[in-house]
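Example with several molecule types.
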Amino acid sequence: KNEVEQSPQNLTAQEGEFITINCSYSVGISALHWLQQHPGGGIVSLFMLSSGKKKHGRLIATINIQEKHSSLHITASHPRDSAVYICAGAGGGADGLTFGKGTHLIIQP
Amino acid sequence: DSGVTQTPKHLITATGQRVTLRCSPRSGDLSVYWYQQSLDQGLQFLIQYYNGEERAKGNILERFSAQQFPDLHSELNLSSLELGDSALYFCASSVFPSGDSSTDTQYFGPGTRLTVL
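Resulting structure tokens for the full complex:
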């Protein structure tokens, strides 16, 4: 069974801080999705990666396949980054995603 | 706006009833995924359809069923509703036609909030 563990569960930081959210996953997962869920409930796909590193604006996602670990970094954090960040593993083939429990991030001004 | 639409936004019903949730994928997307998000279980994959055919099943209860129509919209039917079925139900569609969640970015709809009283 695919499993995804995410940490921390909750994170409060000051505006401008560098943020790291971690995700570990089990054998059988071949790609990681990072999602952002806004307070209103909507979900936005941030990254999908199976190797290396991706960057979009102030967001950076990395994955280490050997260690089965992925990180999401936010540089120069801003209060509008406050949201729940969810990592989700994809097992390859026709499977849906296996989700971590999410990290509730609050950026204080 | 992801381009995925879901109706209704909110649904309040009673135990034992049956409801239908509707999802229209992004134009050109062949794959539709259904997910349930509850307070105690978090997000869970329910079922995937690809070009009208069931492709994969997750933690979908036997009381739940889904289908994808020729115009690619999908419906999730929930019957004999219980209090524990109260949740946010999301559908997502994938940008590439492979139907493979390890290579396809998924675009999520706004969700339907179901409350069972």
